[in-house]
Prior knowledge:
The structure holds two protein chains of two kinds.
Chain A: H1 22-36, E1 53-59, H2 64-75, E2 79-84, H3 96-105, E3 110-115, H4 120-127, E4 131-137, H5 143-157, E5 164-168, H6 175-186, E6 190-194, E7 210-212, H7 215-218, E8 224-227, H8 232-236, H9 243-250, H10 254-257, E9 265-267, H11 280-283, H12 290-314
Parallel strand pairs in A: 1-2, 1-3, 3-4, 5-6, 5-8, 6-7, 8-9
Chain B: E1 2-6, H1 8-25, E2 32-37, H2 41-56, E3 62-65, E4 96-104, H3 108-120, E5 125-133, E6 145-149, E7 157-161, H4 163-166, E8 170-174
Parallel strand pairs in B: 2-3, 2-4, 4-5, 5-6
Antiparallel strand pairs in B: 1-8, 7-8
Helix pairs in contact in B: 1-2
Amino acid sequence: xxxxxxxxxxxxxxxxxxxxxxxxxxxxxxxxxxxxxxxxxxxxxxxxxxxxxxxxxxxxxxxxxxxxxxxxxxxxxxxxxxxxxxxxxxxxxxxxxxxxxxxxxxxxxxxxxxxxxxxxxxxxxxxxxxxxxxxxxxxxxxxxxxxxxxxxxxxxxxxxxxxxxxxxxxxxxxxxxxxxxxxxxxxxxxxxxxxxxxxxxxxxxxxxxxxxxxxxxxxxxxxxxxxxxxxxxxxxxxxxxxxxxxxxxxxxxxxxxxxxxxxxxxxxxxxxxxxxxxxxxxxxxxxxxxxxxxxxxxxxxxxxxxxxxxxxxxx
Amino acid sequence: xxxxxxxxxxxxxxxxxxxxxxxxxxxxxxxxxxxxxxxxxxxxxxxxxxxxxxxxxxxxxxxxxxxxxxxxxxxxxxxxxxxxxxxxxxxxxxxxxxxxxxxxxxxxxxxxxxxxxxxxxxxxxxxxxxxxxxxxxxxxxxxxxxxxxxxxxxxxxxxxxxxxxxxxxxxxxxxxxxx
Lengths: 315, 179
């Protein structure tokens, strides 16, 4: 790296963390390090992506990811256009491909897409010429969330290798969990998934993670707990008996935290169900890095936009 | 053909001369600040700080500037250049900022640095110090303090090595004479 002034990055799209090498993930994290400082300036803007057009194509509601991508693009001086499902032709029956081709015809460089269907970003990357960034596809992947989680852990702990990281809650329906698993195991962390057996697919063992159904048993060894959001409709579907029981067995509260290491990190991708998966005193407590995650998300997304834009300029 | 144009002692002499001339122009030195451009401007700024601090007996705020995100060729080159990060933890407003780089060539790096500094605050003045001025400017930019001035062509390569980044102090000129 010392003698090379360009980054080791050759991907036009960011579709997931599954197929990224450890080197590529590290490149994104190192680049994000350089971008953090921009957000602390009086003028929080650099001209790196001046003249580029980024489209936020969110075919599923989202506030924080969308806002984070908008702000990241703006801090790089790109122009950003929002395209959301409720206001779009998609509700009139136009296919995703047609919509994307129409957007492309307007001269777009980067499409940030969130979609309920796994693989939608991959389909787009084969359909149109712009760079595609996956902002969440069904229960498949949410790569920038995985990256900002890993970035935050590395920033706080100074390393990833050898750390014990638990992903807690609804693993089956979580794209955040998948992106975390691929990224963290690739960088040498020991990943545990913890939750009710009905919410953990047993095939996960093939990805090299350890499965536990008993939070109290594993909590003393953990360096990090990344708490996933419990979606209320899962309870209605009968996947766990009651919200109260879930909170009792798998909720993170001050009492439970006493069994953990003193320097444990408590993470949550948001939005938080206070009082269910985490109590307010822990969410706002000293071990929580939930707001740091949000701040870091901006730097990570700036880094991703910058890196993929560098490749499309090359093509 | 390779030729050493500066060795350890001449680098050190040039830096001392530059420091003296900086003090000539900024008499009391009270509002001086140093900003080194990544990468090799950074150790040079640190060395100037050391020389200047001894003469004016107080600390001079010093920072690093990474001009990558302000380059004018980002749209045409790829892959993306490495982002090393800017680290200026003082307010440059009302400071006499000495911008430090190893080589002054086309002037495009300095143009980017000036734009970035302008976004960071309103300096009282910005002055440019370089170890080597090799000519061939593409923009109307000149150094206020230049060490060695040398005529080159655009196919020549100037390789600045510094102890902090490369293990030794030396400036080498490589001339491509078609052999």
